[in-house]
Design a protein that fits this description.
The chain has about 375 residues and is of the alpha/beta class. The protein has 18 helices and eleven strands. Strand 3, helix 7 and strand 4 form a beta-alpha-beta unit.
Length: about 375
């Protein structure tokens, strides 16, 4: 059997997910199973039915998926054992064994923020989701969501409008886009982003699939933003999973008279970070995920609108050794009033420190 056939055969073993499979393998390669005898499989803890599935997998089903993979250049099958499998997703308690992907598969390794919320959001919540997604991709972050109607769709659209990338995790196979109203959106995502599912391509949506989808949405991401959610909401499941996975949880507050935000207020009471702007999200993320270009955006988001344009000129004029204000004025060619304002802003942003007789730059990767 070729590798794709073996991977699909592993996924067909009844009652054995990724966690149990790794436990039974005890450090061995999963591909050794196909060269093992029934007695050896029994010694590893596989039942007779499971051993039969390994020795004689359903080749007809497997060939259907392999045919699907061959129909487009941008379709991929990624397993837990592949280098392309996202490291963050490996950290969760029940990572999917296989990921069926269509689009730019390299996005799986990129830093991601999930944006989720109500399927029937208010107009203001829709605009907030779009704006946050657009701002997140401007910081070179990938926006991840579940392709549901409402906030999920707005998050995907905001990322696309912002000329960034977005990942949609489905609760169905990639041949069965759900909801159907988002088929056009899914096509747009394929062109610039990525569709992902742990379900085989022709599997229809099912109520039990969506909590499983949610664990992948949160598992792929550094943090989850909940824009609008009632007290009983699937978005709260995603937020709970994120907390269990040691991810950041962010919540957008709203009117106390709006029942659709009561879930967000509950999350805030439980320790989620209240956010009103993308800077509130960025400040909680590890700096090492940002490139020099995106770090510039991260710094800029901390500064006042009046400070953003010339702040980089002022910053470049401050050395890594003590630099006097007169030297900064001379090097930047800016009025002293502007320099003083910029130096204060840069100090508040944590980019320079005030010493005796001048300033010292403490971050050099901008």
């Amino acid at each position: 059997m070729d590798r794709a056939t073996q991977l699909l055969a592993l996924d067909l073993i009844p009652g054995v997910g990724c966690y149990r499979l790794r436990k039974k393998l005890a450090g061995r390669s999963p591909f050794e199973l196909f060269d093992s005898s029934s007695q050896q499989l029994a010694m590893m803890g596989f039942s007779a039915v499971q051993s039969q599935a390994i020795k004689s997998p359903d080749f007809a089903k497997i060939e259907q998926v392999k045919y699907w993979l061959e129909q487009a250049e941008n379709r991929y099958l990624i397993s837990y054992f592949d280098d392309q499998y996202p490291d963050l997703l490996k950290e969760i308690s029940s990572p999917p064994l296989l990921l069926f992907c269509q689009g730019n598969v390299e996005l799986l390794k990129r830093p991601q923020i999930a944006v989720v919320g109500s399927r029937t959001p208010t107009i203001s919540a829709k605009e907030i989701a779009k704006r946050l997604a657009k701002q997140l991709v401007e910081h070179n972050l990938v926006v991840t969501s579940g392709l549901a109607t409402g906030i999920d769709s707005c998050a995907h659209v905001g990322a696309i409008v912002g000329h960034g990338q977005t990942i949609a995790v489905l609760g169905s196979g990639l041949n069965v886009i759900y909801p159907k109203s988002n088929i056009d959106l899914a096509r747009k995502i394929i062109n610039t982003g990525l569709l992902v599912s742990e379900f085989w391509p022709d599997i229809p949506p099912n109520a039990a699939h969506f909590p499983r989808r949610n664990r992948i949405v949160s598992g792929l991401s550094l943090g989850v933003v909940v824009v609008e959610a009632a007290e009983r909401s699937g978005s709260l499941i995603t937020a709970r999973l994120a907390a269990e996975q040691n991810r950041e949880v962010f919540a957008v507050p709203g009117s106390i008279n709006n029942p659709k935000v009561q879930g967000c207020h509950k999350l805030i009471n439980q320790g989620a970070k209240l956010i009103t702007d993308v800077a509130d999200i960025i400040d909680e993320l590890p700096e090492n995920i940002f490139s020099a270009v995106t770090l510039h955006h991260k710094i800029s988001s901390r500064l006042s609108p009046q400070s953003r344009l010339p702040f980089d000129i002022t910053l470049e004029s401050v050395g890594f050794e003590l630099t006097s204000i007169d030297q900064v004025v001379e090097l930047s060619h800016l009025p002293i009033e502007t320099v003083l304002e910029q130096l204060l802003s840069l100090e508040l942003a944590g980019l320079i420190i005030l010493g005796s007789g001048g300033y010292v730059r403490i971050k050099g990767d901008t």
